[in-house]
Amino acid sequence: MSNANLPSHPIILGSSSKFRAQILTHHNIPFTVLVSNINEKAVGGSRATADASELVLAVARAKADALLVKIQREEDGGEEKLVVTCDQVVAWEGGVREKPVSEEECISYLKSYTKAPAETHSAVIVTNTKTGKRVEGVDVARQHFHPIPDNIISQLIAKGDVMYCCGGFMIDDPLLFPYLAQREGDEDSIIGMPIKLLLRLLNEAAS
């Protein structure tokens, strides 16, 4: 990807996710990281009844609000920048899944995807620190799976990365490659940073 597709404004990634950072780096998008420490569980109401897209937008908005306060306090006006905040959940059979809270829950998640696909809802919000303009969107993608053997699930959990991923899986883990079936949507979106949506929002926020 050419940087000609990007606005000239400095970009702040409001996420500690190494996976999102890797995607931006892969696409030659320069950025710095600044993280807001919010209680995500306190945003968006009950996960049992939440609409997945509305939930991720609510959390990403809360992250943006917290970061803007932090930036304004530290920089007192400063240079015009674009702040990117994100959130993602997996919708499955009418429920919402975030990061697994235990190994047992992760095992349950991975086994369940043979029955129905994992549907990722990835919110991206871009806020212009100078103008206050904020634009947002949600990208939805689906990943189908073949049955994942127990020994592979054990190896994935032992490696640990899946415990930090909503829905308890990483499609770019080589251990999982043989068990990935049909995909509806882009790989970047399922990982948590839909690049096409991000680029559109960056340019909208800069204009």
From TrEMBL:
Keywords: Hydrolase. Pfam families: Maf (PF02545). Transmembrane segments: none annotated. GO terms for molecular function: nucleoside triphosphate diphosphatase activity. This is Maf-like protein. It comes from Rhizophlyctis rosea.
